[in-house]
Amino acid sequence: MSKAEHYGNELYTALRERRTLVPLIQQDPSLTIDDAYAISLHFLSRRLKDGEKVVGKKIGVTSKAVQDMLGVHQPDFGFLTDWMYVDGDIDVDGKALIAPRAEAEIAFILKTSLNGPGVTAADVLAATESIAPCFEIVDSRIDDWKIAIVDTVSDNASCGVYVVGKERLDPAGLDLPSLHVAVTKNGAPLSEGYGHAVQGDPAQAVAWLANTLGAYGVTLDAGDVILSGSLVPLAPAVKGDRFEMTLSDTNGPLGTCVANFV
After folding, report:
1. How far is CA 202 from CA 52, 60, 205, 226, in A?
2. For residue 117, which phi and psi values (nearest 5 degrees)?
């Protein structure tokens, strides 16, 4: 059995049994980023065999705040499936969440595909049908969030579920780096940030994803939802917590998104 199959199977079982694993890099210090990507693909293949369908991709660990919090200093990437999408309240038990944390992000909804290398931020904007406020609920199948980059890439970029706000915004005419997000937790101000927290520009972060995945023969496809990375420090969540984000520009609010944990 290959490393990809062995560790991909371990992560799949941990997901289904709602438990964590000793960090993979501790189990095998020789694991590389390429190994991690192969593990992630095998992990995904197990989920697809269960009937899940890929509906998008995600970037993680893009902002300095999140990198410093996790001690991981380069972005990661993963896949979104239809099972991971939540329309309404987040059922912590139903989604087998272990140690969820909420991230406020900007989601890109593509109208045409992007195939790296060579994709630019301008290409991303041209391929984007709309953007939307979004919460990604990250989660980890690794003990106590003690992740290295190999661990989080292998673990589908530590993704749990995601919620997208109702508003669909045309990115044309919006200054994405200057977009502002304000987050509350249980009605109290929690954090705020700007689009430029994500590699200087969320569109640039999506270009990075297209180019990185392109090296592995994976495209960003028409209709995909792309999560571009957190604009604020991620925040732990438990049952009963309610997070709300408001995305704004200099003219005022553009849209909201709610992550309500039940």
Report:
1. 27, 12, 5, 10
2. -80, 175
CB neighbour burial string for 128-157, b if at least 16 within 10 angstroms, e if fewer: beebbbbbbbbbbbbeebebbbbbbbbbbb
The percent of the chain in helix, strand and coil, each rounded to the nearest 5, is: 30, 35, 35
CA pair distance 250, 179, nearest whole angstrom: 8
Residues 194 and 202 sit within 8 Å (Cβ to Cβ): no
DSSP labels, 11-30: HHHHHHHT--B--HHHH-TT
Q: β-pairing, 225-230 with 54-60?
A: parallel
All structural domains of the chain: 3-260 (3.90.850.10)
Residue 107 burial by Cβ neighbours in a 10 Å radius (0-12, 13-18, 19+)? buried
The Cα 82–Cα 144 span in angstroms is: 27
* Tokens of residue 153, six digits: 């890439």
pTM for the structure as a whole? 0.93
Q: What is the pLDDT along the chain (262 residues), one digit of tens a residue?
A: 899 999 999 999 999 999 999 999 999 999 998 999 999 999 999 999 999 999 999 997 776 766 676 666 677 889 999 999 999 999 999 999 999 999 999 999 999 999 999 999 999 999 999 999 999 999 999 999 998 889 999 999 999 999 999 999 999 989 999 999 999 999 999 999 999 998 899 999 999 999 988 988 889 999 999 999 999 999 999 999 999 999 999 999 999 999 999 9
Tokens of 226: 């792309």
